[in-house]
Amino acid sequence: MKHILVRRASQVLTLRGSAGPRRGAALRDLGIVEQGAVLIRGDAVVAAGSAREVEALSGARQADEIDARGCVVMPGFVDSHTHLAYGTPRLLDYEMRLAGAAYEEIAAAGGGILSSVRAVRSLPASALEAQVRAALEAMVRHGTTTAEAKSGYGLDEAAEYKTLELYARLDGQPLRIVPTYLGAHVPPPEYRDAPDAYIEWTCAHMLPAVSARKLARFADVYCDAGAFSLAQSRQYLERARAVGLRLKMHAEQFTRTGAALLGVELGAASVDHLDCAGEQELRALAGSQTIATLLPGAVFHLGLTRYPPARALIGAGAAVALATDFNPGTSPTYSMQMALSLACAQMRMTPAEAIAAATINGAHALGCADRLGSLEPGKQADLIVLNVSDYRELPYYFGGNNVRQTMKGGQIVQ
Ligand SMILES: [Zn+2]
After folding, report:
1. Ligand 1 centroid vs 413 CA: distance in angstroms?
2. Is residue 182's pLDDT more than 90?
3. How far is the centre of ligand 1, averaged over its atoms, from the C-alpha of 286 (Å)?
4. What is the Cα–Cα distance from 174 to 137, expressed in whole angstroms?
5. pLDDT tens figures, 274-314
6. How far does residue 109's CA lie from ligand 1's centre (Å)?
7. For residue 310, how far is its CA from the centre of ligand 1 (angstroms)?
8. What is the pTM assigned to this prediction?
9. Is the peptide bond before 174 cis (omega within 30 degrees of 0)?
């Protein structure tokens, strides 16, 4: 089997460490090797360490070489929260919001989440595929090697299957796509005044079918004003868990609902957003395995000022992850680098914390940290070569693309 040697890196960020999610001081430990190298065999890492040690290994002598002179080499980003398939951008929302319109006015003018529902329902699968492929290509160029992808702009049987089947078809081309059934995003138009009946329908019909057909690993619910209540969220998540899906939640984004505590109680893999989380939520998350996934892109794009309390979460001992929340309404960015810059500038995370939150803890939020998120022997060779020589430059040079090369499973894909 072919060996590849990535040589002469100014820094290799191995992210090696203990098996669990990174918290506290461990979140700042990137396992940096100065003047490092990575040896890869097939799709897996053989060794990541000092050039002297790695280049002395027998496989290194015959290896194909990638010259990473002067570059940082690190694991590919794990973007653990995206709404990948949405059809068309929401430019009406954008302009109206910039002009000062409220959410209700935008919805009344035909914008909002339900406009994405109309788009996804009406577009042929080929057009939806073209939109998703373009987004995946942009993600790869910007260093993402694994992305979670939610449904939830279909909200009826045909359009939810159209979305989830698309994710299954595009998985591995070249990104790993981890699919999530966001059946409880908002009540669809035909259930506008009957959200309970909609939850009944997803619980009786969609959740078991999606699980049986292995179209999703996770189920997600948007628990907030204008979406679903805490009681409805509990009903949906308990059913999802009973049919074998792992759980995620949109929690404490615009209002404090108790969603994060429910997520912890039910053993959710992650609770996401947390802009309005308070003391009780911090303590509960710190004492749990549930990942606190922060999505600063949404706060930025909406022009808001209340970012999630990253420092308090890290200080309390919660395991924090960062993701893009790529979606057409509130966070139209596929750039994990942008999420890192926002995390540092707006939430006062250190560059090292932000990198660990965007790689190894993202992998924990998707339940695949045994294979992804760090450069350690036996793990998948998902790595990026950066056009910078010190990892702190990655969030520092904001708004651009610092990725020179992306490797997925030992193959150069960009
Ligand atoms: Zn979201």
Report:
1. 27
2. yes
3. 22
4. 9
5. 999 999 999 999 999 999 999 999 999 999 999 999 999 99
6. 22
7. 18
8. 0.98
9. yes
Question: Mind listing the pLDDT tens digit for each residue in 113-166?
Answer: 999 999 999 999 999 999 999 999 999 999 999 999 999 999 999 999 999 999
| CA 31–ligand 1 middle distance (angstroms) | 31
Task: Tell how far the Cα of 273 is from the centroid of ligand 1, in angstroms.
Answer: 8
Of the pLDDT bands very low, low, confident and very high (cuts 50, 70, 90), residue 103 is confident
Provide the token pair at 275. 């802009």
CA of 231 to the centre of ligand 1 (A): 20
Residue 329 · residue 116 · CB < 8 Å = yes
What's the distance, CA 214 to chain centroid?
Answer: 20
Which residues have their alpha-adjacent CB atom under 5 A from ion ligand 1? 325
- For residue 196, report the distance from its CA to the centre of ligand 1, in Å: 21
Residue 110 predicted with pLDDT over 90: no
Residue 61 vs residues 68, 151, 228, 244, 407: alpha-carbon distances, Å: 17, 46, 58, 46, 21
Measured in angstroms, how far is the CA atom of residue 124 from the centroid of ligand 1?
Answer: 24
Residue type, 212: A
Spatial distance between the Cα atoms of 124 and 166, rounded to a whole number of angstroms: 11
| Averaged pLDDT for residues 163-182 | 97
Domains of the chain: 3-75+374-412 (2.30.40.10), 78-365 (3.20.20.140)
Cα 275 to averaged position of ligand 1 atoms, centre (Å): 13
Residue positions counted in the chain: 414
Distance 320 CA to ligand 1 centre (A): 16
